[in-house]
Amino acid sequence: MEKPYVFVTRKLPEETLTALKQVAEVGMWPHEEKAVPNDVLYAEAEKAEGLLTMLSDKIDEKLLDHAKSLKVIANLAVGYDNIDLEAAKKNNITVCNTPDVLTDSTADLAFSLLLAAARRIVESANYVQEGKWNSWGPLLLAGADVHHKTIGIVGMGRIGEAVARRAKGFDMNILYHNRNRKPSTEQELGAAYKEFHDLLKESDFVVCLAPLTSETKGMFNREAFQFMKKSAIFINAGRGASVDEDALVEALQTGEIDGAGLDVFVKEPIDPNHPLLAMKQVVALPHIGSASVETRLKMSELACRNIARILEGKEAETPVK
């Protein structure tokens, strides 16, 4: 009996494909840092029963209507805003993601961004490498303390809770804003729920970890930055489109806020000439929230298992509800 065909849209380590290759013939785009072109994606989707996709792949209604044999899409991410869920449902396609396995790695990265932006780590490293360090000064490259400060977390999901645990270790005052209040989290972590604008006004560090929805798109706009303290540092490890980047640039240029640490952007890869990248008070990373070797291998293995289970007529481990 001929095996079903599965296409993987970015090069993954062969060892992560073991479970999938037992039940399917696997085709894979041979590049890790170069996205699969649309024409190739359409041609592969047309013959595939399974797709293993990246957050950067646009899986819209046009593609899904074109992919008549498709049964399952496994996105190598927690997020899935790149996939038209309604169109997938209409075509009886199961959509899966990779939650849980990347929670702590992403929280590590988010808190690293906070520390790097607060203590001017990247700017200081560049200062040494550029040969500018000629003497010591009392306030040379002095940044902001993190301990005992107030962190405001927007989006208190699994990753938000993990960031809050790290903040607790720094004796920070923890505020959060979420679509729903989480009493158990409040009790466990001593976190206080705040309305959005109240959180902005009171926080020294505002950390965006919210998923991208119609409500969160562009929520960090000019008004939001105006509510923040002038000493505030904004961190985004959630979704780039949650931020009005023109408003962020303006807020940084005018001193409305003090700095930013960004792992995600509206358009990725970001244009190297983007004004955010010219600012010393901005730490910008190439969307590496979950990019530890261990975590990325676990994510790949989970995505492969999800596809294999659907093709075997079983339920996926982590279907998107």
Q: Could you provide a short overview of the structure?
A:
Its EC number is 1.1.1.26. This protein has 321 residues and is α/β, with parallel strands linked by helices.
Q: How does the overall form come out from the CA principal axes?
A: globular
Sheet with most strands: 7 strands, parallel
CATH homologous superfamily assignment of the largest domain: NAD(P)-binding Rossmann-like Domain
How far apart the termini lie comes to 32 Å
**How many domains is the backbone divided into?**
2
H-E string: EHEHEHEHEHHEHEHEHEHEHEEH
Strand content: 5-15%
> Helical content, roughly?
25-40%
Q: What are the low-pLDDT stretches, counting only 5+ consecutive residues below 50?
A: none
Radius of gyration, in angstroms, nearest whole number: 21 Å
CATH-derived architecture of the largest domain: 3-Layer(aba) Sandwich
Mean pLDDT: 97
Sequence of strands across the biggest β-sheet: 8-7-6-9-10-11-12
What's the level 1 CATH class of the largest domain? Alpha Beta
Description:
It is a single chain. The chain is α/β, with parallel strands linked by helices and 321 residues long. The protein has 2 domains: 5-99 and 293-311, Rossmann fold, CATH 3.40.50.720; 103-284, NAD(P)-binding Rossmann-like Domain (Rossmann fold), CATH 3.40.50. The protein is 35% helix and 14% strand. It has 12 helices and 12 strands. It has helices at 18-21, 38-47, 61-66, 85-90, 103-118, 121-129, 158-169, 183-189, 196-202, 222-227, 245-253, 293-311, and strands spanning 5-8, 25-28, 50-53, 72-75, 94-96, 150-154, 173-177, 192-193, 205-208, 233-236, 259-262, 282-284. The strands form 2 sheets. A 7-stranded parallel sheet has the order 8-7-6-9-10-11-12, sandwiched between helices. A 5-stranded parallel sheet has the order 2-1-3-4-5, with helices on both faces. Helix 8 links the parallel strand 7 (173-177) and strand 8 (192-193). The model has no long low-confidence stretch (mean pLDDT 97). This is Glyoxylate reductase. Pfam families: 2-Hacid_dh (PF00389), 2-Hacid_dh_C (PF02826). Its EC number is 1.1.1.26.
